[in-house]
């Protein structure tokens, strides 16, 4: 086993899939990254995936299922990462009054170990193998910060301020900025007022559907809230004597890159073997063309993190290794009757294609599918004014039961992506609805995990070949 020390002081090799698969001493480890923008469905996905790998009756699409003899949780390898709160999330989803888990805003990890009967030629010679699946949940927003690494403070400021110019959400920040002389000595209250107003702008812009909201940690600060490394804002270029506000913000920006962005990519991102990117495409379609276009460009940004060679820092981290498979999954497909799933798949393919075509994923295998990690609805077909409508039925979060027709998604995804890209404000010929269904109350038979749509197919794509 070769252990290489890389430029950024990272030691790789020990935990990489290929090296461990061929190593007779240690069990193979698969690090599965789960990402997506806030509310995309990461927490629900991981909870349901783990539950369905522990009780596998609903996982026929994972080809190795009959050979898995046991699956159990183990202490995770990284002592300093929060543990993914699997037990509580599952309890919430499967209680008598089921509810969705509360939003999570940081990175977490969980190790699931699988005992697998080897297949093929070696089957007769080998006993059971243990494969460790380390699942890492991290906010997609953090990937957007990758673009900062190539930019100094002046460049980032200029770009960000140019965008603010046309955004109403930035009014308050602009007012405060206009009243600030950045060449004056730093005063901490001024710094805080600016940073607060800028963070406020980022949050409103994000809520309004914009996703180019760097620095990503301003939106999801965790325990760094209020620290100097998150207390800066873009400033127009100008005089910057020593001790000035400008100099200090420049320093904090560099510190943000060095102490937050780089460690995340080095310690977590660069160790990922397989990646799923969850996308709430239906939510964006419901919100309208600008949200769809914004989602498309955010996906392109997120995916650029997987494009090695584009970024010297990343290339140095990944040396000799890469993310081997990337799956783009449109989540919450249970909002649609299965008759419409091919259309949703075409849309997620279209959203990802842009990035996939341009991207050199260094040979990574990519795929796209529509899934529901937790199926909250049942299907129903009804006659309505002489037409046949394919509906889904479920319990809304307000407790009422409802049957629901979300609108007909076009067979040709360019009917949606085209107008979105061209800057349309509303959909011309259709209206798309989403409803927030509560998780359905489920009675699980022994051996059954929670109901889902194509979670087994997703698992097969992501880890099937390694089991
Ligand atoms: N119907 C349905 N809703 C889902 C599903 N997955 C997620 N959701 C909804 O999306 C919300 C956000 O999911 P969550 O996993 O917390 O997103 P995260 O922020 O990416 O971790 C949930 O509260 C649910 O309302 C699913 O499979 N089916
Ligand atoms: Mg979450």
Q: Can you give me a brief rundown of this structure?
A:
The chain is of the alpha/beta class and 467 residues long.
Structure description:
This protein has 2 domains: 2-138 and 268-376 and 442-466, Rossmann fold (3-Layer(aba) Sandwich); 152-263, no CATH class. The model is unreliable at 1-24 (pLDDT under 50). The two termini are 21 Å apart. It is globular, with a radius of gyration of 24 Å. The protein is built from 15 helices and 12 strands. It is of the alpha/beta class and 467 residues long. Helix 2 packs across helix 3 (86-94), helix 10 (281-287) runs antiparallel to helix 11 and helix 11 (289-304) packs across helix 13 (341-358). Strand 10 (377-384) and strand 11 form a beta hairpin. The structure holds guanosine-5'-diphosphate (GDP) and magnesium ion. The site of guanosine-5'-diphosphate has 22 residues, from helix 2.
Fold topology:
Layout: E1 4-5, E2 11-12, H1 17-21, E3 29-35, H2 42-54, E4 68-74, H3 86-94, E5 108-116, E6 129-137, H4 140-144, H5 153-164, H6 171-178, H7 188-207, H8 216-219, H9 245-267, E7 274-279, H10 281-287, H11 289-304, H12 312-318, E8 325-330, H13 341-358, E9 365-370, E10 377-384, E11 387-395, E12 401-404, H14 414-421, H15 455-463
Parallel strand pairs: 3-6, 3-7, 7-8, 8-9
Antiparallel strand pairs: 1-2, 4-5, 5-6, 10-11, 11-12
Helix pairs in contact: 2-3, 6-7, 10-11, 11-13, 11-14
The structure holds guanosine-5'-diphosphate (GDP) and magnesium ion (MG).
Magnesium ion (MG) binds next to α2.
């Amino acid at each position: 086993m070769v252990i290489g020390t890389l430029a950024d002081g990272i030691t790789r090799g020990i935990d990489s899939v290929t090296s461990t698969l061929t190593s007779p001493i240690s069990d193979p480890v698969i690090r599965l990254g789960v990402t997506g923008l806030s509310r995309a469905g990461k927490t629900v996905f991981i909870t349901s995936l783990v539950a369905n790998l522990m009780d596998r009756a609903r996982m026929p699409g994972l080809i190795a299922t009959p050979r898995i003899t046991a699956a159990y949780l183990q202490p995770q390898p990284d002592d300093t990462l929060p543990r993914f709160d699997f037990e509580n999330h599952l309890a919430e989803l499967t209680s008598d009054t089921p509810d969705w888990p509360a939003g999570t805003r940081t990175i977490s990890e969980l190790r699931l170990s699988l005992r697998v009967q080897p297949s093929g030629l070696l089957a007769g010679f080998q006993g059971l193998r243990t494969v460790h699946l380390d699942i890492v949940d991290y906010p997609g927003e953090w990937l957007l910060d990758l673009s900062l690494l190539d930019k100094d403070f002046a460049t980032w400021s200029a770009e960000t301020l140019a965008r603010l110019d046309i955004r109403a959400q930035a009014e308050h920040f602009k007012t405060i900025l206009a009243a600030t002389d950045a060449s004056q000595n730093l005063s901490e209250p001024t710094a805080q007022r600016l940073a607060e107003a800028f963070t406020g702008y980022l949050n409103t812009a994000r809520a309004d559907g914009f996703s180019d909201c760097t620095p990503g940690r301003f939106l999801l600060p965790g325990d760094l809230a209020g620290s100097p490394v998150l207390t800066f804002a873009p400033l127009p270029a100008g005089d910057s004597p020593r001790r000035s506000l400008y100099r200090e913000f420049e320093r904090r920006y560099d510190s943000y890159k060095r102490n937050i962005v780089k460690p995340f990519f080095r310690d977590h991102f660069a160790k990922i073997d397989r990646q799923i990117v969850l996308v709430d495409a239906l939510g964006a379609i419901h919100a309208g063309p600008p949200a769809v276009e914004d989602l498309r460009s955010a996906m392109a940004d997120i995916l650029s993190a997987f494009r090695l060679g584009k970024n010297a820092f990343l290339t140095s981290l990944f040396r000799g290794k890469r993310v081997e498979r990337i799956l783009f999954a449109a989540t919450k497909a249970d909002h649609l009757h299965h008759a419409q799933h091919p259309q949703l798949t075409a849309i997620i393919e279209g959203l990802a294609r842009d990035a996939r075509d341009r991207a050199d994923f260094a040979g990574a295998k990519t795929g796209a599918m529509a899934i529901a990690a937790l199926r909250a609805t049942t299907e129903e077909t009804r006659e309505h004014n002489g037409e046949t409508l394919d509906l889904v039925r479920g319990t809304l979060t307000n407790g009422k039961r409802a049957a629901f027709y979300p609108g007909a998604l076009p067979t040709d995804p360019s009917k949606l992506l085209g107008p979105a890209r061209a800057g349309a404000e509303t959909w011309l010929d259709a209206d798309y609805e989403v409803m927030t269904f509560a998780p359905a109350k489920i009675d699980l038979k022994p051996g059954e995990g929670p109901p889902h749509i194509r979670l087994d197919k997703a698992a097969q794509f992501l880890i099937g070949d390694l089991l």
